[in-house]
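Below is how a single chain appears once it has passed through the pipeline. First comes the sequence as given, then the structure the pipeline wrote out for it. We keep one example in the README because the format questions we get most often are answered faster by looking than by reading.
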Amino acid sequence: MNDSSISTIDVLNTLAESVVVIKPDGEIILVNLSWENFAVENGMPRSYKWTGTNYLDACKMAVDIGDEDAKQAYDGIQRLVNNEVEHYEFEYPCHSLNDNRWFMQYARAIRNEACECTAIVISHINITDRKRLENKLMEYAIKDPLTNIFNRRYLELKLQEYISQNSEKESEFSLIMVDVDQFKKINDRYGHQVGDQVLIQIAENMRDSVNLGDLVARYGGDEFIICVNGNGLKNIRQIVDRLTEKLRNFNLIIGDRTLQIKSSIGVLPSEVTSSVKDYNELLRQVDNAMYSSKRQGTSQVTILTE
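Resulting structure:
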């Protein structure tokens, strides 16, 4: 077999990524086997004739209904045709009913001696495994492994963001700190496994008490913080009421015993947070409010109003 007997499509069919070759006006010249297989997996008939259909027209239809990824592809192809770039690439989600998938689209122009675009080769590369790993690593970086809520590092980053938005009058927020009463005694008497179950359940109670968009984080040890979006004492009191109701009814069954778990709560409403420009100062003040509750006994709430 000599080199001239190997066709372009033979070469493209060896590639794992889905490849389509188009003319500058968008007309499809050829697609490889991976492209056809992917199309079949997503409901297209095997007999569908891709050659002669227009890739740009399909992109334009998607752009018209607000598809930002299609707009990136459409604009990228125009830049290649106009000789503004040599290639473009971007990542995009392509989720199915059964799976979340991500792809990278990479496109490069074929040019003649006059540097005119004669064709464009577009590859769709499956990067799902890489994105899943990236997402998992990101989750490890910002989530508490025991309770699966956000960790202190992420909390502090978000507090700085909230303060910046607050100073620009873009949004307001309140803080709630929850601390498990006599947690050390629980650990010492019943063991760390029971202590872990207490923390996990506290975190679940907090998640169940907040509104969509509020942030729940483990600050450290047996201390938790909620960042509540919105302003006003009425808004924060509603959340505190839901939270205290759940926490006061929180009992943990240990063998034939029922352990009643109590928590102290400190609250910094938006009327206070709006005047604080440093996240460490915010944490100090809400911590003071929480310890004020502890000094009053168990299951107490202190709302700092000034």
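Residues 80 and 252 are 64 Å apart (CA to CA).

See the next section for the split statistics.
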